[in-house]
């Protein structure tokens, strides 16, 4: 057994318990049973029972293999199935029902495990990557299962590389807030003190999920025109957004002190991280920028925290 076997078991259980014939794909032409039969065939491919000899360029295959097996590389959408034209309809179904196809999937998985238990050192041709070992095939199957689980909505799609980078940058900015901002810091501008600022950051995370149900009431076309200047500006709260909106007194404090506010901020950010992963394609309103995507909101949060770090002289 290797590190990927439990993941394969998880995905087979997910398909058996959650997938129905009524599940519609988010992309592609396969229906639920097409996908299950396709997965079953891939197990047989990885034992050498099905498939053809590798006829590609070994050097190119090695490069593709290195990219595919990198940690964050997702299984690509719309990839051509070997032996079929790209975009072609799935082959005819082999079983009378989805339940029968799932039983065959489990049988094919057992054939895969038994084969490599009997021949643990054997390497089998992959149509794109050349010769793969048992562990490499198991790794391939986990990515393949994850891909089709997302295709049929059994799992959420991962964040894009851009979104992952922005989340990491937000985490680094928040570390400065947690470790360096104190109630003794005086604001270089504005009406908020440090304690109020920490609570404000927490509330903006919640606001960006749409939880407050506050619709955008401005001119959507004008808001869209503001996005490019916002992206280009180092401190858009000073140079892009109308300053008349920043003259209100901050709301009353909800936490006992700045350390309690930081704990609440940490919780808000953890919840927001989960929200991003569960809703990567969500659209929620921003007071100036209109209805923007989760990815756009991540950039807003990054710049927003930097704005307030600047406000308290921490950058």
Task: Briefly characterize the structure.
The protein has 315 residues and is mainly α.
> What is the CATH topology classification name of the largest domain?
Four Helix Bundle (Hemerythrin (Met), subunit A)
Oligomer status: single chain
Query: Helicity range of the residues?
Result: 40-55%
CATH architecture of the largest domain: Up-down Bundle
Overall CATH class of the largest domain:
Mainly Alpha
Strand order of the largest sheet: 1-2
The number of distinct β-strands equals: 4
Shape: elongated
Structural class comes to mainly alpha
Low-confidence runs of at least 5 consecutive residues? none
> How is the biggest beta sheet arranged?
2 strands, antiparallel
Percent of residues in β-strands: under 5%
In total, the number of domains comes to 2
Using only C-alpha atoms, the radius of gyration works out to 25 Å
- How far is the N terminus from the C terminus? 50 Å
The succession of helices and strands, N to C, reads HHHHEEHHHHHHEEH
Helix run count = 11
* Overall residue-averaged pLDDT value: 89
How would you sum up this structure, described in words?
The protein is mainly alpha-helical and 315 residues long. The protein folds into two domains: 5-151, Four Helix Bundle (Hemerythrin (Met), subunit A) (Up-down Bundle); 161-311, Four Helix Bundle (Hemerythrin (Met), subunit A) (Up-down Bundle), CATH 1.20.120. It is 53% helix and 4% strand. It is built from eleven helices and four strands; from the N terminus they run ααααββααααααββα. It has helices at residues 5-18, 32-45, 58-68, 98-118, 134-151, 161-180, 194-207, 220-232, 236-239, 258-278, 294-311, and strands spanning 124-126, 130-132, 283-286, 290-293. The strands form two sheets. A two-stranded antiparallel sheet has the order 1-2. Strands 3-4 form a two-stranded antiparallel ribbon. β1 and β2 form a beta hairpin. α1 runs parallel beside α5. It is elongated and about 70 Å long. The two termini are 50 Å apart. The relative contact order is 0.12.
């Amino acid at each position: 057994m290797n590190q990927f076997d439990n993941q394969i078991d998880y995905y087979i259980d997910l398909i058996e318990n959650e997938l129905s014939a009524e599940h519609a794909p988010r992309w592609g032409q396969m229906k639920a049973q097409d996908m299950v039969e396709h997965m079953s065939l891939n197990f047989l491919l990885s034992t050498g029972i099905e498939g053809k000899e590798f006829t590609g360029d070994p050097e190119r295959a090695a490069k593709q293999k290195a990219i595919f097996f990198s940690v964050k590389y997702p299984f690509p959408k719309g990839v051509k199935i070997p032996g079929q034209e790209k975009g072609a309809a799935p082959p005819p179904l082999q079983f009378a029902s989805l339940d029968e196809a799932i039983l065959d999937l489990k049988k094919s998985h057992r054939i895969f495990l038994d084969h490599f238990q009997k021949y643990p050192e054997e390497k089998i041709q992959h149509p794109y990557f050349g010769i793969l070992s048992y562990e490499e095939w198991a790794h391939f199957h986990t990515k393949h299962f994850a891909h089709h689980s997302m295709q049929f909505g059994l799992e959420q799609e991962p964040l894009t590389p851009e979104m992952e980078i922005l989340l990491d940058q937000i985490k680094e900015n928040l570390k400065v807030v947690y470790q360096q901002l104190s109630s003794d810091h005086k604001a270089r501008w504005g009406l908020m003190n440090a304690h109020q600022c920490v609570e404000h950051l927490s509330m903006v995370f919640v606001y960006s999920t749409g939880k407050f149900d506050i619709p955008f009431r401005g001119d959507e076309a004008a808001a869209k025109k503001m996005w490019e200047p916002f992206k280009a500006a180092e401190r858009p709260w000073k140079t892009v957004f109308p300053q008349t909106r920043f003259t209100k007194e901050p709301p009353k404090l909800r936490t006992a002190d700045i350390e309690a506010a930081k704990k609440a901020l940490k919780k808000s950010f953890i919840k927001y991280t989960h929200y991003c992963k569960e809703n990567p394609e969500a659209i929620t309103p921003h007071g100036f920028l209109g209805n923007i995507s989760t990815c756009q909101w991540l950039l807003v949060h990054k710049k927003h925290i930097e704005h307030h770090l600047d406000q308290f002289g921490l950058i």
